[in-house]
Amino acid sequence: MRHRLAVLMAVLLTVAFVVPLFAHHSIASEYNATKATTITGVISKVDWVNPHAWIYMDVKDANGAVANWKVEMASVAGLTKAGLDKSMIDFTKTYSMEIWPANDGSKHASGRTLTFADGRTFDVSDKWPQSPITK
Q1: Which alpha helices (DSSP H) does the chain contain, by range?
Q2: Confidence (pLDDT) at 32
Q3: d(Cα 2, Cα 113) in Å, to the nearest integer?
């Protein structure tokens, strides 16, 4: 009986500590770090949630058609540490966001920096190393 209990405990501890390591997605498999680009538009929605916050931005293309981009950002704690708070977002203003686009060409990206109309810039990424951002 003790042997079974010890084996059960070992299995449970393994599952509790090892399985979460595989839960996080591979960054390179989803986003292209070599094709950083900038999108500009009005933020239509913010999901201030963990493990990653999300911004939805309405972006006009060269023909004037509007596409809604879904942009993944750092955790709420990471964004707070960078000086960004959800209450700072004005849904009537235009923002620029440097992104790493999705590999599949969809309007999905990983955010790198978010720039406000007044020039303030915030590091919103926890993906790849980047140069320091000034606020």
Answers
A1: 2-18, 27-30, 76-81
A2: 87
A3: 55
Q: Select from 90, 112, 117 the least CA-distant residue to 101.
A: 112
Q: Report d(CA 124, CA 74) in Å as an integer.
A: 6
The answer to whether the beta carbons of residues 41 and 57 sit under 8 Å apart is yes
pLDDT tens digits for 52-84? Answer: 999 999 999 889 999 999 999 999 999 999 999
The pTM of the full predicted model, rounded to 2 decimals, is: 0.74
For the chain, what is the radius of gyration of the CA atoms? 19
* Six-digit token string for 14: 């393994």
How far apart (Å, rounded) are the C-alpha atoms in residues 84 and 81?
7
